[in-house]
Amino acid sequence: MAAADEYWNHNTAYHPWLLGLAERRRGRVLDVGCGDGLLVQRLAEVADSVTGIDPDPVAVRRACERVGPDASITLLHCRFDEFDPGDSGFDLITFVASLHHMDLRGSLVRARELLNPGGSIAVVGLSANASAADWLFSALCLPAVRIGSRWHREQSDVGVTVADPRESLAEIRRVAGDVLPGAQIRRALYYRYLLFWTRDTGPVTSRRTGWRPSRRA
Fold first, then answer.
1. Distance between CA 146 and CA 181 in Å, rounded?
2. Is it the case that residue 30 has pLDDT exceeding 90?
3. Helix (H) or strand (E) holding 125
4. DSSP track, 17-62
5. For the Methyltransferase domain, which residue ranges apply (predicted)?
6. pLDDT given for residue 213 in this prediction
7. Which of 107, 128, 182, 207 has the greatest number of beta carbons closer than 10 A?
8. CA 19: distance to chain centroid?
9. What is the pTM assigned to this prediction?
10. 73-77: strand order across its sheet
11. Which domains, and CATH codes, for the chain?
12. In contact, 72 and 48? CB cutoff 8 Å
């Protein structure tokens, strides 16, 4: 891949976290809403196999062009609620700026069903500002966001479909609490939140996940 195909934005800023999770598992990974395939390509370097799905045919075509022929990568044009993996489950399912395009509860339920025992769901998501705390946190992050974006030469428009988030972080926490008991959710820089949940395991430590627990704002 040419260096020109690499870029940084508020989503790719969290690729290292996801890659660390995939590398620890060395299993099957599903990237939901794979876009142009940059994360899929990176995941393939640390996972046994990667499947990327996206409802946008243009995005899937670009992803295919990016990754080229690779036996460890499968790219499919489909919606998540239509995706059929057959009898195989996944060891890690990732959503990067894609979950807010879908039905929140239904998508988390579906992801939970597709996990192998011990598998994990990792979300880099967007939430709507609804409370005073939401707006205050966004305002406090602004200086750091501007510095980070300038330092990394942010490429915000990479030609994928975007949408404004509907659910607030409080709503996301409520739904995740119902569907994924014990899910860890925290606010993050670049107007994102991080969600992490593992099926059929006890409490997850920072050492295993790269998670940095923080107090809820």
1. 35
2. yes
3. strand 115-125
4. HHHHHHHHH-SEEEEES-TTSHHHHHHTTTSSEEEEEES-HHHHHH
5. 29-119
6. 41
7. 107
8. 11
9. 0.86
10. 73-77, 49-54, 28-32, 90-96, 115-125, 192-198, 184-188
11. 12-155+164-199 (3.40.50.150)
12. yes
